[in-house]
Amino acid sequence: MLSLSGNDATHDDEIAKGRHRDNEYSRRTRPERRATMTQTKAPGGTAVAAPNGAGNGTEQRRKRATFGRAGKTQYNKREALAGYLFISPWIVGFLVFTAGAMIYSLVISFSRYNLATNSIRPAGVSNYAQLWNDPRVGVSLGNTLYYAVFAVPIEIVLALVLAMLLNRLGRGAGAFRTIYYLPRMTPSVATAALFFLLLNGNTGAINQALAFFGIQGPQWLIDPAWVKASIIIMGMWSVAGTMVIFLAALKNVPRDLYEVAALDGAGPIRQFFSITLPMISGAMFFNVIVLTIAAFQIFNEAYLLFWRDQSNASPESALFYSIYLFQNAFERFDFGFASAMAWLLFVIIMIATFIQMKFGNRFVYYEGDK
C-alpha cells in the first residue's frame, strides 16, 4: 500500500512537471506565433487574426475579384458598343428624319415660310394666333375629337369580341386568324374604293341589305350627319391589329382561374368581368392609348373617301385636323402655319396621353404587384 501511494505521488509530480514545461514553451513561443499571424479585418470591420499565408490568400482573392469586375466591365462595354452599332441605322434615321424634322418645324412655325416661292420671313407668334382665329381649325378639331370618342371604344369592343371568338376555337384557329387579319393587309386605296361602293346611298350593298329588312338607308357620303359614321365604319376594316394583341393577352390568362371560378358557381359573365378583363387590362390599356393617338391623326380614310377628288365639294363634317394641316402645307404651301398646327396637335396628343396614363393606369393589373 505504501509503495502504491509513493508511485502515485511520483506520477503526479511528473504530470505537474510536464504541464509546467508546456506552459513555459507556450510563453516562449507566443511572440513568435504572434509574429507569424497576419492581421486582417472581417467584413463587419472587426479585426481578426489569420494564420501566416491566409492574408496572402485573401489578398489574392481580392485581386482576382477586382480583375473579374474589371473584365466584366470591359465585356459589358463591348456588348453595349455592339448593341449601339446594331441600332445605329435607326438612331441616325430618328435623329435626321424625326427629331431633326421636329426641331425644324418648330423653328419655321415662328415664320412665314412659303415652299412655292422658297421665301421665309419672321412672323413671331402670329401663326399660333391664327390658330385661334381660323374657324376651320376649330371645325377640324371638333370632327377629330368626335371620331376619337366614338371610334376608339367601338374598335376596342369589336376587337375584343373577335379575339374571344378566336380564342375559343380549336381546330382551324390558325386559318381563321389569317382570314380575319387579311383586311389589315389591304392597301388603303383599295379599301377606300371598296367602301365607296358599299356606302353608296342609292346602289350600295349596305343600303340594299338594310332595305331587305325594310329600313331606309341614309346617304352615307352626302348627308353631314352620317359622314363621320361612314368614316368610322371604314376604320373598323383594320380592326385585326388590335384583335391580335387581345388574342395574345387572352392566351396568357391561366385556365385554372376559370376552373376555380366555375367550381364557385361563377357564370360566363361573372368570369369575364372578374377574371378576363383584369387579366388583360394591360393589353386594354395599351390599345386604348395607341388607338387614341392614331384617332387624332386620322387621315387616310377621310381623305380617300371625300378629299381625293378636288372637283367635288366635300362636306365640312369630313374635314379632319390632319387633312386641314395637309391642305395648308401642300396645297397652299404655307408651311409656317402648317407647322404651328402640327405642334398644336402634338400638345393635344401629349395631354390626352398624360390623362390616360394618370387615371387609366390605376385600373391595370400587374402580376408583380402585391
Short note summarizing the structure:
This protein is mainly alpha-helical and 370 residues long. 71% of the residues lie in helices and 4% in strands. It has two domains: 59-108; 130-363, Orthogonal Bundle (MetI-like fold), CATH 1.10.3720.10.
Which features characterize this protein?
370 residues; mainly alpha; MetI-like fold; 2 domains; two-stranded antiparallel sheet; flat; disordered N terminus
Write up this protein.
With 370 residues, the chain is mainly alpha-helical. The protein has two domains: 59-108; 130-363, MetI-like (MetI-like fold), CATH 1.10.3720. It is built from 15 helices and four strands. The strands form two sheets. Strands 1-2 form a two-stranded antiparallel sheet. A two-stranded antiparallel ribbon has the order 3-4. The longest helix has 55 residues, at 54-108. It is flat and about 70 Å long.
Question: Percent of residues in beta strands?
Answer: under 5%
Strand order, biggest sheet?
1-2
Sheet of most strands: 2 strands, antiparallel
Number of domains: 2
CATH topology of the largest domain: MetI-like fold
Shape: flat
CATH class of the largest domain reads: Mainly Alpha
Radius of gyration (CA) equals 39 Å
Separation of the first and last Cα atoms: 85 Å
The average pLDDT value, as a whole number, equals: 81
Helix content, binned percent = over 70%
Instruction: Return the string of H and E elements.
Output: HEEHEEHHHHHHHHHHHHH
> Helical stretch count?
15
Q: Structural class, please?
A: mainly alpha
CATH homology superfamily name of the largest domain:
MetI-like
How many distinct beta strands?
Answer: 4
- The CATH architecture of the largest domain is Orthogonal Bundle
